[in-house]
Records
---
Amino acid sequence: MSRATPSGSLPAGAQVEGDSSVHRLPAGAKLLALAAASVALLAVDGVVGVCVTAAVVAAAHLVAGLGPRHAWSQVRPLRWFLVVLAGTQWWLVGPVPALVVCTRLVALVALAGVVLATTRTCDVLDAIERAARPLERFGVDAGRLALTLSLAIRAVPAVVEIVARAREAGRARGREHDVRALAVRATVSAMRRAEATGEALRARGLDDQ
């Protein structure tokens, strides 16, 4: 197994070059595995389930040659949200259910990070488009659907990264705990990113007109 060779800080959802067995898997197979894992996470229950889930996520990163630094880079932006979520769940339903809920969320984000880090965007688009082609007989544009779903997949780590950067900007200004300022900065950044994406799509003739 050959390890990937990331350099510098790893933003959430960043692609990491490598030649591991996970890198070489077809994009369609990885997307199907991620979908199956998402469903399987709903069955996670109790401390044993949490331990098994943690082992699976660790194994996925190990096989992909990504290592703990990459795993942490994916879930690090969620840390304060997890604190609030864990505290709320603990208060409402108890410590074990709180642990289970947080584990499901972290595992899903981490596994999605593995898929995004080991798969080129164009391969994701091609896999989704191939799967959607049977729907063309019903008037569905497979290419547009593939693009939409690909953008949705990429949007999750992008939003997480935007929030993390907004928090860092607030910390630099001494306003780390100002929730309103954080929300405004994150919203503005998200809107700018969405506008830039829209401009890029229009430039390629992929707008709705």
Note: The CA atoms of residues 79 and 106 lie 10 Å apart.
---
Amino acid sequence: MPVNKSSHPLRAHLEEIIALTDTEFDYIASFFTHTKKRKHQYLLQEDEIASREYWVIKGCVKSCFYDLNGKEHILSFAMENWWITDYESFIKQTPSKLYIDCVEDVELYYITREDREQLTRTSHKMERFWAKKSKFGRIALQNRILSLLKDSTEERYYQLLQQYPSLFQRVSKKLIAAYLGVSRETLSRLQQKHK
């Protein structure tokens, strides 16, 4: 069945940064694989080598690690139009320090490390796309670290609520607390205060 290229979700996403002809998009799309995963399925587990980078079409996933006491710490959530992998493992091909799992049923595209390298070599537009996405990712990470270092728990909660209000309807309080680095009791107090 032919795909309507102009309404293809991956094309729409790429064209937020780069303009593509149908031929260019067909070539780029040939490197990506479509998949669906169920809630609680892993995309990556600790000590595996990250061989894929995922783009979320629909649903929500999280990247996290567990400390020596078994406490979960969430580094990030990835919802629609976000990219996710363990980038250190993906780039260096070292064992992952993270788990990436599905918070909801998800629909994704993924590209393997080898295919991404080939696509970057053969498509200057995709090289530009990933360079820009990488810059945005570094900015977001820097802002998250700065917020953890300088903002109060209440300020971090309010920022998350302002930036991603739908997240609070989509994921459990336990996961929001793990992302903010607070107890569920603290989170409940903050939610009562901001009702």
Note: The domain at 5-150 is CATH 2.60.120.10 (Jelly Rolls).
---
Amino acid sequence: MFFKEIQPRMADAHLIMDWRNDPVTLQMFYHSSPKKMPEFYTEYLEEYFHEKQCPAVFAFLNDVPVAFLRFEEYQDLECVGRAMDISINVNPAERKKGMGVQVLKAAMGYLRERGISCVIAEIKVENDASIGAFRSAGFEYLDSKQKMIHDIQKSIPIVRYVKML
């Protein structure tokens, strides 16, 4: 498995949008409305390239893109060193193959190499597949809470899982 940074080009944005708009994926996102071009491309350019130390990546296995990973610095966690929130979106064609667990395990090396010491995942409580993948990848349950999604004015129950590197 190898990681390749996303690029500010339409092809990368389309792939991410297509995976994100998958009906199963939409159910598990905080924002459950499908995205459309060209609005998504503008969002992609404005919001997906802020994290310089741990840029968003595609995970590849045998030259096939199997997942998309995005990282954001995380402030709401006591840890020694830098904490990073991780989001994963597995290629819908690669689901139910254990790909999420493989990608998450490999991502820990990617993050460790970049000086990250704590990784946290916020997961909707009903997302059993993601909860199982994070647990199988060595993440431990931290807590449950309500997460306020301000742009849609909605509170969503989540669980948080953490892994120390």
Note: The chain has a mean pLDDT of 93.
---
Amino acid sequence: MTVFEATTGRGETPPADSVAPRDSTADAPTSVTRLNATIRDFIARWNTVWVEGEITSWNVRAGNVFARLKDTRSDAQISIRVWSSVRGRIPSDIGIGDHVVAAVKADYFVKAGDFSFAVSAMKHVGLGDQLERLEKLRAQLRQEGLFDSSRKKRLPFLPHVIGLITGERSDAEKDVHRNAELRWPQVRFRTEYAAVQGDRCVPDTLAALARLDADPEVDVIIIARGGGDPQTLLGFSDERLVRAVAAASTPVVSAIGHENDHPLLDDVADLRASTPTDAAKRVVPDVGEQRALIAQLRSRATTRLTQRLTHDIAQLEQLRSRPVLRSPAPIIDARAQEIWLLLGRGRDTVNRQLDDAGRRTGELRASLRALSPAATLARGYAIAHLDGGVILRDAADAPAGSTLTITLDRGSLTARSEGEIAEDA
């Protein structure tokens, strides 16, 4: 029996009634503890090796890190552990998707029969190939404007039918239904099942999206999955699916994973929900909250209306209490007497002005008549006019043969001049 077969390691001695694994038979089997101890002691002789790969999961518990490292050229993976004593010696920004090289030593836990590698050193090599391609695609789509908030559609306040794309009999489906129905019991769903990881994820989701987007009754579409590591969420960063969501006429909500998950679908969707539960709460209003809001608004309206009516009634009573409105007859009678007096005074004033104007008009008429040529004609005079209406004032202006028009008090006549008469004649 070798030394590593005889002990369980760390100074522990295997049970006395257990035989070594190499000596075990059906009648004398070895114990699980001794088998695990033998495996552990054999693995403990392996040396530290440097390994290269892509980190696909990174979970911190009690200061220790439990992660998985994947070969960038195949699907081979190993489990690695970074103890809290080592974390301070590795870059603090290492996380999922990073391409790293690590110094690892095999470790086998006897109690759980768990095989993993303990990390003693780790450093960056670069982004993992897949995540590097995704970041390039993310930058391209952002440059094209597919992530702009201006192109994203508003969700309806209360959708008549919610389209749901999720895995069949999945927890995500149950979460969305349960939380939506708690908030609005009459909510209706149209569910399309699709593979949420693997090779069928993208074609199934594209087909489901096309069917729901073509349905006129569907007001909003939720794509839901219960989270996962970046490897299982790759389908939701596929360029075909991302562009199809951007081109959909129906608002799309992305509820792919947990708060830290971030596929490209989150960026292009009209709304990003952190979880399927969050999606249900943000798509469907809470009936209790809406009823409380309506009651609050009704109460506020009633209060405001009551205050307005009370104010207006008080103002009306104040106006009615004034003397002019309480007993208007004395005031009207007093004003009526004043009006009659003013009317009489106005009438007298107008009559005096008319009399004065009549007298003045008569005087002006008499003056005008005294100066009028008609009065002169009435006394027997006449007015001689030359052709063109020129009044004749000098006999020399009417030589012999000139035609004259003689205007008398009554009518006029035509005469012909025989020339100027000599004074001695």
Note: Residues 377-416 form one domain.
